[in-house]
Amino acid sequence: MIEHDEDHEGTTVEVEFDQQQDFLLEKIRRAGRHGTTDEEVIRNVFRQFLRQHGTSMDAADETRS
Amino acid sequence: MQPMRHGRKRVDLVLRPVSGKALPVHKGEVLRLTQVEGEQCVDFNAFNLHDYKEHLGQSSTRSHTWRPRQGDIIWTQHSRYRPMYLILYMPDTCVTDVLGGRCSFALRLREGFGAHTNCQDTFAEAIGEYGLTPDDVHDSLNIFADTEWDPSGNWWINANTSKKGDHVDLLAIMDTLAVPVLCGGIASNNFSYKPIRIEVFELTDESLKMSERIWSENAPFTRSLGDFRIQEIRLGRELRPVPGYEPRFVNYPIVKRTIRVRLSPSEHRALRALRGRGLGSTDGDALRAAFIRAAVPGLQVRDLP
Predict the structure, then answer these.
(1) Between residues 175 and 234 of chain B, which touch chain A (CB distance below 8 Å)?
(2) Within a domain: residue A8?
(3) Helix count and strand count (H, E) for chain B
């Protein structure tokens, strides 16, 4: 997995999904509550994870979906 | 769980110490095991009455809990993973075990005993009535069996605290051959053997409805014989490769694709913090792990430190 340097706008993370994880991603995407693209869905589910685990984000109101 | 009215009693017998009995318990019927004196462990095997290759699954049941109690389901083995019994009633004095397997003649010989009662042999004798062999005995659901385990892998047996009159009710979700045996071990029964009463109550509209509900709720997650590539039971004992056979592993080979996800600076800092807590060794690993953990709420995984 390649990690890009962080710039002022953020960081692009490359994440690998196999076909089984893709199934899950597609199911969530079709449900329509977390976005319409793979990137949006992954990012929004990740934000949900952060909320569930009380992990702080300095700018939690930054949204992009 | 609401108390359920039982049907007419059709079996009522008392098993003498170190014996066992194989008996059909049909869908919607209730099998009751009662302490006649107390302090007696019961090891329990069960088969699908119409296909003996499907049997009680100790590890599939353990996937849910290793202390099944009232309200839990006892499942068949992983190849089918179907609901077999519901624990309809179980008192607090009953501790169950699905880790310890069963005792055997070899174990007792190693301990220095001579020929000694043991659950493997008791099961084998009981199921012989239906033409089954010692190899058909499987790891048991142990009832009134207070074992204890520590994280290092050590285990021991606590005193059996069951009392006279304590009973367990199992509601059959499928047609079964139930095989309760009275443990012939040593410490599990506080060093002496006692009888157990066995009763079977016929189905009622209510019990049948509950069985069918549990069956249908779980049907999407189960398999049956019809799903198997090879359905015939081997006749010979010697194993030889099947000419031309090619395994069809599920989702084989694993194929990966890369997805680019733009995170805000604060999200990325949070991701890095999660890596520090052991979520993954790279950003991509950590992001995937967080995604799956959030997307699958029932995942049995340790909380992050």
Answers:
(1) none
(2) no
(3) 6, 14
Apex CA A55: angle with CA A50 and CA A56, to 5°? Answer: 110
Structure-derived torsion over alpha carbons of residues B142, B146, B147, B149, reported in degrees to the nearest 10: 120
Tokens of A59: 């700018």
- Per-residue pLDDT of B147-184, as tens digits, reads 999 999 999 999 999 999 999 999 999 999 999 999 99
Best probe of the A interface among B249, B250, B252, B267, by most A CBs < 10 A, is B267
Distances (CA, A) of B203 to A51, B14, B75, B98: 48, 21, 20, 27
pLDDT digits (tens, 9 = 90+) for B112-136: 898 899 999 999 999 999 999 999 9
Q: What is the pLDDT of residue A56?
A: 64
Cβ-based contacts of B282 with chain A (< 8 Å): 1, 3
> Would residue A43 count as lying in a domain?
yes
Six token digits for residue B158 = 């606590």
Q: Is the pTM of this model over 0.90?
A: no
Rounded CA-CA distance B183/B198 in Å is: 14
Q: How far is Cα A26 from Cα A20, in angstroms, rounded to an integer?
A: 10
Number of structural domains (chain A) is 1
Q: What is the ipTM of this complex?
A: 0.83
pLDDT tens, position by position, B9-44: 999 999 999 999 999 999 999 999 999 999 999 999
What domain range is A33 assigned to?
19-51
